[in-house]
Amino acid sequence: MLQRPRRNRSSAVIRSMVEETRLSVNDMLFPLFVMDGKNVSTEIKSMPGIYRYSTDLLLKEIESCVQLGIQSFALFPQVAESKKDSMATESYKKGSLYLESIYEVTKRFPEISLLTDVAMDPYSSDGHDGIVQGGQILNDETLPVLAKMAIAQAQAGSKLIGPSDMMDGRIGYLRESLDDAGFSNVGIMAYTAKYASAFYGPFRDALESAPKFGDKKTYQMNPANRREALIELELDESEGADFLMVKPALAYLDIISLLRENSHLPIAAYNVSGEYAMVKAAAQQGWIDGEKAMLECLLSIKRAGAQVILTYFAKEFAQLKIS
Ligand code: PBG
After folding, report:
1. Is ligand 1 within 6 A of the CB of residue 164?
2. What is the CATH number of domain 24-319?
3. Beta bridge partner(s), residue 76
C-alpha cells in the first residue's frame, strides 16, 4: 500500500495539522429572546438552557456573552397576545418592547452586531408572517408593513436587519425603503432559503407565535426542493442582500453548500430551535454526549460552507474556550 490515510490520523498533533475546518467563537451568532417586565427571565421548556429576558437582564446576558468573545447576536420579541393584531401594528409602534430593547442594546454595546428580525409573526394575531385575508397570506400588501418595521428598527439603532418572512420581493423593497429613509448603511441578512420545517416548533413556543390556522407552506420553501433555492439566491442577490441565509441548517447542509458554490456573498446558516432541542433532549436522557454532538453539528454547518452560524449553542460553545 502506497497510501495509508491512517498515517495522518496517528497522533493528536498530526490530526490537528491536517484538520480542514476549525470552529471559532467568531463564527457564532447567538439568537436571544426579549420579554416584557423588569428583572424577569423564564426558561423556554422545549429549549433547555435558553431564556426569555426582560431588557435589563438581556443587557446582563449580552455582557456575559461579550466577555466570552461572542460579538454577534439576533433578537426576537415575545409579544403579549393583547398587543397582537392582524396588521402587526405593534411591530413599528414607538416605545414598543422590541424597539426599546434594540435601542438599549445598541446604545450599551455599540461594538457588537445585532441582527433584528423583520416579519409579522411575533405581532400577528393570525400567527403568520404576512397579512391574512380570507385564509390567504397577501404578498404585496405585506411589504409596506415590513418596511415600516425595518425603518423603525433602524431608527432604534439596528445596523443589520433579518427579513425572515419569505414574501416575494421583500429584499428589494426593504433595500429601497431603507435607502429612501437615509439608512443606506443598514445591512440586510436575507433568509434566502427558508424551508417550511418542523424544526421551528420550540421557537414558536418561545414566542407563542404558532400560526392560528394552516401552515406556512405557501411562503416558506418545500423541503424537497434544491434548485428552487437558486432562484431565491438570484433574487436576493439582485435585490441587494448583504448575506444569504439557509434555514434550518442540519437537514439542509446540501443547500448551504449549494449557495456557497453559487454566490460570492457570505453565507449564514440558522441552526434552529428544534435542532438544538433534539441534541439537548437526547443528552438529558444520557443517550448521546451532548457536548460532542454539539461540536459535530456546528462543525458540519461550517464544513458545508456557512461563514456565520446562528445557533442557540453559541454561549455553550464559547464557554469551552476553544481557540
Ligand atoms: C418566522 C421565524 C421562524 C423562526 C424565526 N423567525 C420560523 C417560523 O416560525 O416559521 C425560527 C427560528 C428557530 O426555530 O430557531 N419569522
Report:
1. yes
2. 3.20.20.70
3. 33
Predicted confidence at residue 322, as pLDDT, reads 85
> By the 8 A CB rule, do 79 and 69 touch?
no
pTM assigned to the model: 0.97
User: What is residue 197's three-state secondary structure?
Assistant: coil
Q: What is the pLDDT of residues 153-206, one digit of tens each?
A: 999 999 999 999 999 999 999 999 999 999 999 999 999 999 999 999 999 999
pLDDT tens digits, one per residue of 209-252:
999 999 999 999 999 999 999 999 999 999 999 999 999 999 99
pLDDT value at 71 more than 90: yes
Handedness of CA 142, 144, 145, 147 (dihedral sign): positive
Question: Probe ligand 1: pick from 73, 192, 199, 272, max atoms within 8 Å of CB?
Answer: 272
Name the helix (H) or strand (E) containing 23. Answer: none
Please give the Cα distance from 272 to 76 (Å, whole number).
13
- Spans of all domains in the chain: 24-319
Catalytic site includes residue 217: no
3 state SS of 289: coil
| Interatomic CA distance for residues 165 and 120, integer angstroms | 7
C-alpha cell at 189: 441578512
Pick from 164, 189, 191 the residue to mutate for probing ligand 1's pocket: most ligand atoms within 8 Å of its CB.
Answer: 164
